[in-house]
Specification:
Layout: H1 2-21, H2 47-63, H3 67-105
Helix pairs in contact: 1-2, 2-3
Length: about 110
C-alpha cells in the first residue's frame, strides 16, 4: 500500500506545481486562467484525481480490510460524475478549440 500512496502523492504534488507555475487554480470549480497540458497532463487529463485515487487505494491496502475499498470506489464515481464531467464542460467553454484538441489527444483517465 505504501507504493501507490507515494506515487499518488507525487502525482498530486507535480500537478499542483504545474498549476502554480502556470498561475492558475487547482480548485475543481475555480476559474482556470491557463490550460495546463504538460507533465502528467500529457498522459491523462486528470492526474490529480488519479493521484488521490492511488493514495486512497494505498491507504485501503494498508488497512487490509474490504470496507475502505467501498469508499475508494464510491469516490471514484463521484470524481467522474460530479467533478470531472462538469470541469470538462467549463474548460471547453473557457478554452474552446484548444481544449477540444487536447481532449482528442489525451484520455480522460489512463
Amino acid at each position: 500500500g505504501v507504493v501507490p500512496l507515494f506515487i499518488g502523492a507525487a502525482l498530486v504534488l507535480h500537478a499542483l506545481l504545474l498549476f502554480r507555475r502556470n498561475k492558475t487554480t487547482a480548485e475543481p470549480f475555480g476559474e482556470s486562467l491557463a490550460l495546463v497540458t504538460s507533465g502528467p497532463f500529457r498522459v491523462t487529463r486528470n492526474p490529480m484525481y488519479i493521484g488521490v485515487f492511488l493514495m486512497l487505494s494505498g491507504i485501503s491496502c494498508l488497512f487490509g480490510t474490504l470496507a475502505p475499498w467501498l469508499v475508494v470506489l464510491s469516490l471514484g464515481v463521484v470524481f467522474d460524475v460530479v467533478f470531472v464531467r462538469q470541469e470538462e464542460k467549463r474548460l471547453e467553454m473557457m478554452f474552446g478549440d484548444d481544449y477540444r484538441r487536447y481532449k482528442v489527444q489525451v484520455r480522460r483517465w489512463i
